[in-house]
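== Sequence, structure tokens ==
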Amino acid sequence: MKKTYTGSCHCGAVRYEADIDLGEGTFKCNCSICSKTRNWLTTVKPQDFRLIEGETALQDYQFGIKRIHHLFCRHCGIHSFGWGDLPELGGKVYAVNVNCLDNVDPAELVSAPVTYVDGQNDNWSAPPLEIRHL
């Protein structure tokens, strides 16, 4: 069941709301940026995401084929969410870092299913060979 969560960066300059069903799953990826930032993500459709504050505080970083906007706060550097227009996911989606949800109960995170994806090898339908470090 969807629940409205609030999320933010570390300094609070970027704040958002997102309607998320953590029971539908989360994911961790082994690509270079997800590994280095220790991202733990869930995706939401545009109608379920609302940026409340901080649009001017966001910096956009893209790499590779530049399909995903890796956003971070220019003040504190935290990657609280990003977005991409990905046909394989039905168009535009937001990737919310569940570690940046302010009102999530740790029990909700413990029970949220996690899928591991091999972004390092662009093999999104299979887990990487090693996941313990993710």
Remarks:
- The chain has a mean pLDDT of 95.
- The domain at 3-121 is CATH 2.170.150.70 (Metal Binding Protein, Guanine Nucleotide Exchange Factor; Chain A).
